[in-house]
Specification:
The chain is α/β, with parallel strands linked by helices. It contains 14 helices and ten strands.
């Protein structure tokens, strides 16, 4: 198996509107720190960081609060025979490992470019999305999604078309749940529609990246239609269960789900807004130790509400005709999560 071309070096010379991109913060960590953390998993050798001489002290200060791969600063361009990581790129760790093992260019492992319009503003959201990306769907939906994106790359079809198609499938499945007669074939069709919608929802992001057509409108449309499909589907489940049993409790569960999900989204958005306004060191200092490293139980609770996990639950339950189970579970889950988040803020403020 080919080994990576070493030495591994980091080019910290690329600049943005506010100075070297190496010093820009993404998830509270400077870009150079992210690359050094990644380099530590690739090789134990000292990494040479090429940067302007006058920027060495500032970059050194940004790295002083966290352990990273051993590094030294150098001036001038990196040597041509080196494996070069650039600070105007964010890389996918696994793809980078594979690329270097096969002797390929690190450019094949780039997941986000900071030197593009809106590159800095969208970097944190993209990295966060990647780190929590499809815990189940990656094992089956990712490959067909990538194939669809590659086939559509040279065409005039844009990611928003896939986003709309995915939403249409979810809404179509919801209409079928609410108004068609419950039969095994109907259940199978609903499950297949939801599965195809997940593949298309995955492929729109891939198409945006390989076409270079990612935009704020596309991200907004994707997030908005995902939530719309979620609400429409659960409203359809509540109506279907009410029509089946004649019990108004199902309609109350549908309303409870909608209110709980709304409160959960509001508290989550507020927490992100507060975190974004705080400097990283201040946020860490203010947070209680328990919040810095989530417990296993907390991780499992968060995973239960993950969109990919819920989507797969829909597929399975739709296939067996028991989507009402998802309504019951999440009509409780989201209000409890919202309440827990609110209580957590109270505890932190009075700590």
């Amino acid at each position: 198996m080919p080994r990576p071309t070493f030495p591994l070096v980091i080019d910290a010379r690329p600049r943005g509107p506010h100075g070297p991109l190496a010093g820009e913060l993404v998830q509270g960590r400077c870009v150079l720190g992210h690359l050094l953390d990644m380099a530590r998993t690739l090789d134990n050798a000292t990494v040479v960081v090429h940067a302007r001489l006058e920027e060495h002290p500032r970059l050194g200060d940004l790295l002083s609060d966290r352990s990273t791969a051993p590094y030294v600063f150098a001036t001038g361009p990196p040597p041509e025979n080196a494996t070069i990581l650039r600070t105007d790129r964010l890389y996918d760790r696994q793809r980078l490992h594979r690329a270097l093992r096969k002797g390929k260019d690190p450019e094949s492992a780039v997941l986000w470019r900071l030197d593009q319009p809106h590159g800095l503003s969208g970097a944190e959201a993209e990295l966060t999305r990647r780190q929590s990306y499809q815990p189940i769907g990656r094992y089956w939906a990712l490959l067909p999604a990538q194939m669809i994106a590659r086939r559509l790359r040279p065409t005039r079809i844009r990611p928003n078309a896939l986003t709309l198609a995915s939403a249409a499938l979810v809404v179509g499945a919801a209409v079928a749940v609410a108004f068609t007669r419950a039969t095994p074939w109907a259940h199978l069709a609903e499950a297949l529609a939801l599965a195809l919608a997940l593949v298309l929802d995955t492929s729109d992001g891939h198409l945006a990246r390989i076409q270079g057509t990612a935009s704020e409108l596309g991200r907004w449309l994707d997030a908005t239609l995902d939530e719309l499909g979620d609400m429409v589907l659960h409203a359809a489940i509540a109506w279907s269960a009410f029509a089946r049993d004649g019990h108004p409790g199902w309609l109350l569960l549908g309303m409870l789900y909608g209110m709980g999900k709304y409160l959960f989204m509001v508290t989550t958005a507020e927490a992100k807004h507060v975190s974004a306004r705080q400097p990283h060191h201040a946020a860490v200092a203010a947070a209680p130790p328990a919040t810095l490293r989530p417990s296993r139980l907390k991780s499992w609770v968060r995973l239960t509400g993950h969109a990919d996990v819920r989507w797969h639950l829909w597929i399975v339950l739709a296939a067996i005709g028991r989507l009402d189970v998802a309504l019951i579970v999440y009509a409780v889950y989201f209000p409890v999560r919202a309440l827990g988040s609110a209580l957590g803020k109270v505890v932190v403020r009075h700590a």
